[in-house]
Design brief:
mainly beta; 33% strand; two-stranded antiparallel ribbon; four-stranded antiparallel beta sheet
């Protein structure tokens, strides 16, 4: 909660926060994601090497980020 992964945007898709991890997992090349309330709810799919230490605290409790299991580099 309240975290973001800056950069490495692969694509984005409008949707709910509860579906963002699954949307990322089913998108080729997506290794991590950030969901924001932008435009009614947007899942920002990200690519590339990532670790939890790359997450940036935003202070905005509506933002969610995560890493797809098995994609820790």
């Amino acid at each position: 909660m309240a975290c973001d992964f800056k950069g490495n945007d692969l694509s984005n898709q409008k949707g709910s926060s509860s579906n963002c991890a699954q949307t990322c997992a089913s998108t080729s090349g997506c290794t991590h994601f950030t969901w924001t309330s932008y435009n009614g709810g947007t899942c920002w799919m990200k690519s590339g090497g990532i670790s939890q230490s790359n997450a940036v605290f935003t202070g905005d409790q509506s933002i969610i980020c995560g890493i797809i299991p098995g994609d820790l580099f």
